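Exercise 7. Predict the structure of Fumarylacetoacetate hydrolase family protein from Microbacterium gallinarum.
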Amino acid sequence: MQESTADAASDARFRALPTRPGKIVAIHLSYASRADQRGRRPQHPSYFFKPSSSVAPSGATIERPAGTELLAFEGEIALVIDTPARRVSLAEAWSHVGWVTAANDFGLYDLRANDKGSNVRSKGGDGYTPIGPGLIDARTIDPTALRVRTWLNGEIAQDDSSAGMIFPLAQLVADLSQHFTLEPGDVILTGTPAGSSVAVPGDVVEVEVDVPGGPSSGRLVTTVAQGAAGFDGDLGSLPAVDDVQRTEAWGSREAAGLPADASGSGEQSTTGGSDAESPVSAGSPALSSELRAKLESVPVAGLSGQLRKRGLNNVHIDGVRPLHPEAKLVGTARTLRFVPNREDLFTSHGGGYNAQKRAFDAVGEGEVIVIEARGEAGSGTLGDVLAIRAHARGAAGIVTDGGVRDAAAVTAVGLPIFTVGAHPAVLGRKHVPWDVDATIACGGATVQPGDVIVGDADGVIVIPAGIVEEVVDAAIAQEDEDAWIAQRVAEGHPVDGLFPLNAEWRARYDADRKGKAT
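Solution. The predicted structure, encoded as tokens:
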């Protein structure tokens, strides 16, 4: 029987593969370079599915839908399963991979808002998974020695290797096989390194996977064209972007053509991300340089008074003292939680790339690592190496309601650090590092990622991000008033009626302020 035109076109999409894949499984975030770029590292791999209808061969043209702007490319190593894998061990997992090739995991950031990490719409479009052109025999290569490179219009955009992955290739196969059978022809997209960016109509994107000096997939070539069809808002949500999405799609504010952001990372995005993972958050709202300067100018006692006026009395991190009493601490919270030590849990969670290490690797510029240690002073919660790491990352400081070991060396780093005291013991004596960027309790105060942390010699307070500007402006005004009152007291006036100001003194204060303003 003569093959129909439709069947021929369908077959052409899969010409680089042994068969049409029953499943395409993609990982959200897997390369250290990408994790560092995004400022977050996952503890475990997390995944999403792509439909096999999204596969395209080398040389294909894909469309950017009408009304959208952020079609991003992601060069990746693709694994093609050869023999069924179900609950296979890490040691045997690679033997179930038949071939390795190049893939491009295209995604439309405009459609991430309602995908919440599933990426069904943003990454499932027709042609959004180019694969090929050639297959590398997996049995002939070292899975840690693969290189992936991406070119945009002939210029190198991505260059990394499987040695730079957080999760080894074989681990992905073994992990997925715990949950369902990987069948012959299934494809695993293993994540993209740093350098992913936006392709616009007319751009040509090429991806190659190879073993340097050895076998290669050849270059996978895809051309982007402008599509005429858009989306119907009566059927589902329409494309929507903000500057956070633009920054993530392009890779930086500069690349996105956005003005320099004094706050460091722009506004908080409310859309779902293609690199969504748990438990690490997508980052917290940063403070503008102007707002940070205001917070640095006001004592914690003044901020505390304004929070109390707004009904917030339980915002003090009690029991901690600064290693540098003269230093002011201002930043947004990134949180780390320790649970009481239990030997079996320390065995499973205490070693390797644990929550403590992930927190210090992920902290960003102007952020404060806040540690829940239950007020337990019988063990250190950080030492000099981690303090150096936080300082190198541009952290604003550290607050822990536990101990600090290597206290002299930690103090010498110069970072503002608040702690209950020094203790020489390591974590395993009292703590298990458990999770990051979750709501925690530190020094009797609830702290959420993104809360504003301010500390000085009086102590540390937590300010909800939504009211921080209101609070600090009110505190500055109160500081001015208190300074004026102090001057009157120094002149010999009695406190009664002056502190706080009665109507008569208030009128004199207002008149004085008005006179100075003119």
